[in-house]
Amino acid sequence: MDIAINWNVLEARGEWAIVSGDLALDNPLRSAVMISLFTDRTAPEQPSASDRQVGITPPGNAANSGRQDRRGWWGDAGADVPIGSRIWQLRRAIKVGEKAILLELEQIIREALQWLIDDGVVSSIDVATAWSVMNVSTAEFSVSLWEPTAAQPQTFLFSWTWEGL
Asked: Which InterPro entries match (predicted)?
């Protein structure tokens, strides 16, 4: 078991769960997914073509003047594979094509979770993204993880609400 994390959608942050004055325990795979998705990964110096398609721009350009912050976690400084995801970059994405943003979100999720395959924790990952029918500024997504010996995947559901859409 691992420390349980409660995700607060409105505040876009997770907190350790406390039960009866002690840390609550939860599924370690769920904790790994939450940390991988909702920790800010360092942005690349130059966005990819698909990043640019949805309006993700490099730090410090005209659209982001004065914003040199590429975020990330200081512990990644010497790491071969950084933790976290670039979902945070979608906060200011341009909603020129709703489908393009969902495809970019899926790609970012897969990038963040690739280490689970590389380390042999899971054999495959399925990701599905969709716009929420309740809130046009919310993307909902499911992540299904197939462990090597499991007959069924473990599926986790999340949503991400942001400004700028």
From this structure: Phage_Mu_Gp46
